[in-house]
Amino acid sequence: MNIAATVRTPWYRILYVQVLIAIALGVILGYLAPETAKSMKWLGDAFIALIRMMIAPVIFCTIVHGIASIGDLRKVGRVGLKALIYFEVMSTFALFIGVVVAEVVKPGAGFGADPKTLDPSAVAQYATAAAKDSTIAHILAIIPQSFLEPFAGGDLLQILLISILTGVVVTQLGDTAPVVGRVVDIVGRILFKIIGLVVKLAPIGAFGAMAFTIGQYGIAKLGNLAGLIATFYVSSVLFVVLVLGAVAWLNGFSILRFVSYIKDELLIVLGTSSSETVLPQIMQKMEGLGASKPVVGLVIPTGYSFNLDGTNIYMTLATLFLAQAVGADLSFGQYATIILVAMLTSKGASGVTGAGFITLAATLAAIPNNPVPVAAMTLILGIDKFMSECRALTNLVGNGVATIVVSNWEGELDRTLLNEAMTRPIAIGDMVESKPLETVI
User: N or C: which terminus of the chain has fewer CB atoms within 10 Å of its end residue's CB?
Assistant: First the structure.
């Protein structure tokens, strides 16, 4: 038994407590001194940059080592297929929840916005980005111009491509494969040790990001469209509790205990508005729940591009809100188009702040006869930042659940470790320090 692990950590050294305090201080500073708060933006940007510089190599090492350790390419394909099927089913549920809630609550009804008075220049950058968001563009964008480009640009889909190709080739190296796998394993351990150091700065990053958000946009923005914000948050909570809760129950664990287990990561995401900031940590946490290392290495990175439950709920809810706000009466065909297009445009919106807004513009532009002009997005431009946190939080929970489910389907879920971790959550810093090196990645 690890005696050090039984020593109670002082409350002020617990990461999620530090992040909570930092978020509260950021809100207070943003409210009392907006100009000073806006100057704190660089703290959040610096923390996100530190994390993002590690994401590409961490994903590469994790996927390559995962595929190499499996060895059987048929099993790799089987795990990937199960994950993709799960992603599509959950994405469809999320899209329909957005539609149902929007139709029941009707948050945009009575808004009375006149499309002719809307200023399209305010969302011109998003419309331009959306215009490039076609199926062919999606496919071509996956292929990098060089092998090293994804490591510099951080495009998750491109990183997935080169990682999978490299992993497949490594499995075919014969006697050399274990040696290459060992080297990748060692590099991965080093990277996770670096992550363990960087994550200690999370409270500073959360403070800077939250202070800037409140200082830049103001709490008053929340009041202007409180109905939409509340509807989106309630919709996401319903999805997590009911849909993901049912999935978790069917696979033998509690969704509420799961959320408690990853509370550190959720608070970091809340502060930074991006689920990318905790990608390496969430992979470690899923191993701590008993999910097998190869499954974690394949499902989590893939899910960051293909399993965006929060983004999907936002897409349909926001689209129907804008339709109601401008008085557009959508036909059945237009509803179907919204769902189908959203399923495509949401892929690759990898948890980056603002990506959901671009995909929303692409969805609006694709609706037949354009009943809702892209310019209508100006109605929610000021509050999108407040909803991006909820998108990222829901995406993170969804990807964590997906990892446990797929690992269970593969018969590679350590139930003893799962039950132990659920009753006694371990902080990410403790995991990095106390777990044997062989189990760190």
Answer: N
